[in-house]
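Dear Dr. H.,

I hope your travels went smoothly. While you were away I took the liberty of generating a structure for the chain from your last submission, since the lab meeting agenda had it listed for discussion. I wanted you to have the full record in hand beforehand rather than looking at slides cold. The sequence, exactly as received, is reproduced here:
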Amino acid sequence: MFTAIQQRADGSIDLAILTGIGRKVNTLEEVKLSYRDAKKCIDYLQTTQAEEMVLSYQQLGIQRLFLKTEVDELKDFVEDALGVIISYDENHETELLQTLRVYLECNQNMV
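The corresponding predicted structure, in token form, is as follows:
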């Protein structure tokens, strides 16, 4: 939908439209987080020469850490990236997070 709007605007009035899509939220209180995510996407599109005009927060990936990162955003990134592992460790008394840490510290050497 956003791509179609952008194409019409670009074709008829030579207007570039950038669209940022925040994460899906479940409560009204979380809408501010989704808005912040969408704004980060637009900031990224404005600072790069990417041809994309529509970007979702999930597509932004690790790049989001380099755009005016706040402590809460770092926590969100850790939760998005490692939340499942942390939760599994807590619920099953395993050490998957520690195993991942050692694996990365050893330059991804499984030995």
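Two observations you may find useful: The mean pLDDT is 82. Residues 71-92 form the longest helix (22 residues).

With kind regards,
E. W.
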